[in-house]
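Why show two proteins at once? Because comparison is the fastest way to build intuition. When a single record is shown, students tend to memorize it. When two are placed side by side, the eye starts asking what differs. So, the first record is below.
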Amino acid sequence: MAIEINVLKIDYLQILFSDLNEQYLTQPIVEDLMLYDGDLQVENFRMNYQNSYAENDWASFKLKITEQELLNKFVMIAQHLNFHKTPKIKVICKLKPHQKAIISCIASVSCTNPDHPSVDNLAINILKG
């Protein structure tokens, strides 16, 4: 079962934290974050209205992790990100739309309190790459 968001259904989303440049890290991250359809919720979905007739023509959405163990894992990963260098860190990710090919996109991870990343001050926005 896949999540349906307007014209986009998601089978999985892989955020490649292990590929981040060391300047954005306080400690190395060796594990990526893998989210499946039951682990996430999509908010603030935005279409690319220039070609809105196209099936996959989305622009961005805010990602909310709903599965508690993965949310805790994300917070632990975020504690190794250097938000003092930049308040938004862009991370390459792979999105697998339902019955479609894998596409590359960008996860923009932000934190409003870089000294203490937590569930309340972290956000992930997915941007079409």
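Second record. Ask yourself what differs from the first in the token line.
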Amino acid sequence: MTNDNGKMNREEAGRKGGETTAKNHDKEFYQEIGQKGGEATSDNHDKEFYQEIGQKGGEATSDNHDKEFYQEIGQKGGEATSDNHDKEFYQEIGQKGGEATSDNHDKEFYQEIGQKGGEARANQRDGGSSDGPNDGKMSREEAGRKGGEKSRR
């Protein structure tokens, strides 16, 4: 592409320059300049900048991918994580998650999930019906409800 006076336009000059650079440099060169560029960007921008571009990127990704895409990358990430960590890692993050949940929720939250869990287990045990056999034992649903009530006190 040339303009009216026979000179290359910016697009053509950029393309040719990029091709020449690619021929003259290897992967290591690009990693190095990428590292320098990342450091310069980090020096010039604050946390809000990264939050904003992260949100924009997340929105663009979600516009371009379906549920199966996220299931697939989630599974791959989970497998990679399990390959790289041991039981203690999972115990530690489980404890941190439990503490964070505890900090963010009140007694009513735990009562509600306890009741829902009890009902779900009772339905599983009774084959989908919450009216199972009465063998003198308390159902899980009842135990969940009573446990929720007890934690209120």
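One difference worth noting in the second protein: The CA atoms of residues 3 and 74 lie 49 Å apart.
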